[in-house]
Amino acid sequence: MIAAINPLRHINSLTVPLRMLLAFLCGTAIGFERSYKNRPAGFRTHILVCIGAATASMIGIYLYLCQGLPTDISRLGAAVVSGLGFIGAGTIIVTRNRTVKGLTTAAGLWASGVIGLALGAGFYEGGIFATLLVLITETVFSLLAQRIRRTPEFKITLHYRQKPALDQVMRYCKDKRVAITNLRVVSGGTAEMPDYAAMLNLRPSFRVNRDLLLAHVRNIHGVLEVEES
User: What is the CATH number of the domain that holds 220?
Assistant: First the structure.
């Protein structure tokens, strides 16, 4: 804690606009990076979240210290943290290929709210330092994440008539460290001649030769046809 700014930690006519201004600047800094990357929540959303959280934090302090009401200072802050989850959820989407987007923006909104709470409570060092770390995370680590090689997920459709065939395919995928992220089975045919179709989403733990994997699955007893979709 910096002792020189201890007088600014009290609620008065000077510190209220100061905390609002710091919340505005921190929200702008985080939101500008999101707007630059054309993300769902831009700098205006981050500013409003940060200022609103700072105001809620100061209200709790004001009611307890200035008005002398028997209230919990942290209650409004806890409500803000919970409510931020609803705002962040609106930025998260699942695409057709079952990839999730918007998690970083949602986390940034949540962090902006917490930073606003810190600034509203007079914890200037924590709010400003947290803002710097959020910006570093969203910029520098974004570049590092792009360099990380990811093994893409792919889908296969499996046709078979004997149920143990699917168990063998799943066991083979497990042995080869290929995770089955989604499985859907559709049954057809007749009781005497059943026909099953299984749609599997596969995500290998490392790069695999898909042609060899599909060739091995085709050779499993009971498998009629395998195709990549």
Answer: 3.30.70.260
